[in-house]
Amino acid sequence: MRRERPTLDTVAQAAGVSKATVSKVLNGRGDVAAATRERVHEAIGSLGYVPSTGRRVHDTTPTVTVLFDAFVNLYSAQVLSGVVSAGNEQGVDVVVTHLAGSSALTPGWFRGLSAKGHHGLIVVTTEVRPDQVRACADAGLGLVAVDPVSIDPSTTDQLVSVSATNWSGGLQATEHLLGLGHRRIGFAGGPPASRPAQQRLHGHLAALSSRDVVLDDSLVLQVGFSHEDGRAMAGRLLDLADPPTAIVAGCDASALGVMEEARRRGLRLPEDLSIVGFDDTYAAAWTSPQLTTVRQPMREMGRVALRTLLGLAQGQRPETHHFELATTLIERSSTAPLR
C-alpha cells in the first residue's frame, strides 16, 4: 500500500502548532519563535514533506541581500554591522554584494534574487532609478535604501529610505565652530548630486545665516566624500588670499584628507585650523588630534533597514517611507576657539 503524501495538517499535528504557523515557517516569516521554527523543521524532515511547488524544504531561513556601491570605507562597515546584528536577532541570513554601477540592477537581476528565495534588497549609498524600483517590486522583492544618493519624486511612495538628520547635522557642525568664534568657515562637501551632501550643506548655510555671517562662495566646495577629495578641497581653500580658520568636511574620510593637507602645509591642528567631520566612524577617535565630528547612528540605520525590509516582505505597511535618525555632535580635540 502506498503511503499517503504528508500535508500541512500532518506537519502541524506532528509539530504541535497551527497550519498558519507551518505556512509562516515555510515562507521564511520572521515572527515565529526559534524553538517553534525548529520543531516545524524537524517535523518536515521526519515526514518528508514536499511543498506544492515540488521542491523539498531543506532550509527556509529568510535571506536578504545588501548591495554596496563601495566596500572600502568605514561607513559601509558600520552600516553592515547593524544589518548583520539585526539579522542574527531575527534569524535572517545576510548576503553582501557589490555591483559596478546602478546600471547592473536589471529586471533579470532582480528576478534572479527572487528565484533564489531572497526576501528583499537593502541598497547602501547607491542610486536606484524609478524603473529599477518598479522592477524590484515586480520581482516580488522588498526594497530599502540607506542614505540614497537621490530620491525621484515618482518613487516617494514606493521607495523606503533610512538616513540620518543630515540638515541638522550640518547645522550642528557649523554652530559648534561659530560658538568657538570662527567666522571664516570653509565647507568641503560631497558631490552636488548627493542628497545627503546637499542636506548637510543647507544645514551649514542655515547656521551661517542665523549668525548673520555673510556667505563667501569661495569657501563652499562640493567635490566628493573620499580622502583624496578632502585633500584637494583643503588645498583650494587654504590657497585663498583670506583662508578659512575652520573647515566643515562632508564626512570623516574627507576630513582626514583635510587634516593631511593642513599638516603638509605646516599648519598646527587645531591651533591654526579647526576641523569637523561627519559620520563618527571608528577612525574619528584614532586621528591625532581626535576628530570632532557629527555622529550619525550608522549601526542603527542598518538595523532599522533590516527590520523594515522584513516587515515589507510580510506585507506590512512601513511606519513612514523616510526614516531619519537623529545626529549628535561629538566634540573632540580637532576644534578650538579662534585665536
Topology:
Blueprint: H1 8-15, H2 19-26, H3 34-47, E1 63-68, H4 74-90, E2 93-98, H5 107-115, E3 120-124, H6 130-138, E4 142-146, E5 160-164, H7 166-179, E6 185-189, H8 195-210, E7 220-222, H9 227-238, E8 246-249, H10 252-264, E9 274-279, E10 292-295, H11 298-313, E11 322-325, E12 328-330
Parallel strand pairs: 1-2, 1-3, 3-4, 4-5, 5-11, 6-7, 6-8, 8-9, 9-10
Antiparallel strand pairs: 10-12
Helix pairs in contact: 1-2, 1-3, 4-11, 7-8, 9-10
Write a compact overview of the structure shown.
One of its GO terms (molecular function) is DNA-binding transcription factor activity. This protein has 339 residues and is of the alpha/beta class.
What would you note in describing this structure?
The protein has three domains: 1-60, 434 Repressor (Amino-terminal Domain) (Orthogonal Bundle), CATH 1.10.260.40; 63-164 and 298-325, Response regulator (Rossmann fold, 3-Layer(aba) Sandwich), CATH 3.40.50; 166-296, Response regulator (Rossmann fold, 3-Layer(aba) Sandwich), CATH 3.40.50.2300. 40% of the residues lie in helices and 17% in strands. The chain is built from eleven helices and twelve strands. The chain has helices at 8-15, 19-26, 34-47, 74-90, 107-115, 130-138, 166-179, 195-210, 227-238, 252-264, 298-313; strands spanning 63-68, 93-98, 120-124, 142-146, 160-164, 185-189, 220-222, 246-249, 274-279, 292-295, 322-325, 328-330. A six-stranded parallel sheet has the order 2-1-3-4-5-11, with helices on both faces. It has a six-stranded mixed sheet with strand order 7-6-8-9-10-12, with helices on both faces. Strand 1 (63-68), helix 4 (74-90) and strand 2 (93-98) form a beta-alpha-beta unit. Helix 1 (8-15) packs across helix 3 (34-47). The radius of gyration is 25 Å and the shape is elongated.
